[in-house]
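Here is one chain, start to finish.
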Amino acid sequence: MNCRFCNQNLTNEFVDLGFSPPSNSFLNKEDLNKPEVFYPLRIMVCEKCFLVQIDEFAKHDDIFNGDYVYFSSFSTSWLKHAEKYTEMMVNRFGFNENSKVVEIASNDGYLLQYFLKKGIPVLGIEPTSNTASVAIEKGVETVVDFFGKKLASELSSKNIKADLILGNNVLAHVPDINDFVGGLPILLKDSGVITFEFPHLLKLIKENQFDTIYHEHFSYLSLYSVQKIFKSNGLEIFDVEEVSTHGGSLRIFAQKEIQKTQEISINVQTVLNQEKDFGLQSLEIYQGFQVKSEKVKNDFWSFLLEAKKNGKKVAAYGAAAKGVTLLNFCGIRKDLINFVVDASPYKRDKFLPGIHIPVVSESWIKEVKPDYVVILPWNLKNEIQEQLHYIREWGACFVTAVPEINIF
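Its structure:
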């Protein structure tokens, strides 16, 4: 395997989480007796550019298809994040009815709807047809396709140019990161701005967030690596913000390097220094992550076995991709976690890939009254704890497994 950015031969392993099916390949009941495809979940780090990455074992057009089950609008905190971002960008850059905002991986229109409400023209680019159809119903014009140089050129030839190109949690999802980033300056106006948000590799390592590793995420990103990738494609990062989403993310701001419309913020060097001081530009920091991940696995197993031995009922909340990684890595099945609740109707009445735990509605919690509810999307812990506050009535507790077992 060679680095997807600099083509360096990859020989340094970051972590091996065994074999797992794609995290959003949920099963219907009739699929349970059919063979499932499992892929290696082995992550490497490039010693030249320090891009952390997985090989494209599961093809991206197989993962992001018309059966995709992740719809962004089912998280109230994520919607608030999107609305707050819209307000900030309009206030900072003055986008108006004469502007064009393009979102890559626009999903179900969860974010562009807020620009639309302000009368700002928008265009979504989304490869999964089922989520795109929901966006279109909201009035969000959407192109159903993968983004890259080819699509950027096609749109540009139709005089579609963006004042703002944005993408949240998409940069990690592309196997050909050079083609993807290379398309941005083609679609961007000379005075335009780009923003991307992605989980920060520093946080992943520091807080042992191994469950954010899954086949949809082809790359695990630092500002150091992203800056190199953008620069090689004629783009300059002029600002960066640390945001709390997904356990700690970066929001980068970029422009065409030749234009230099925006001044470079001191924030860029500040975050680069943080990464360097932490050790992201040396191989040593990437060693030992395997042991930390396996400790969580063993501790989680011990907790569930003890609960089983004591006759306790355990359920989980949130059929998120990170939960699929955790449960498959740990080998947890429905004898230890009876069911998983999820707010999305697109996931309910299906089964988690690999471990086949049923996904059900919230009414099951009230009916079964489990003794423990494991919150799988720990990044939404506060939102879920508030939503399920009533489990305290029968003395139940919440549990998170990452970065360590916590019962509360």
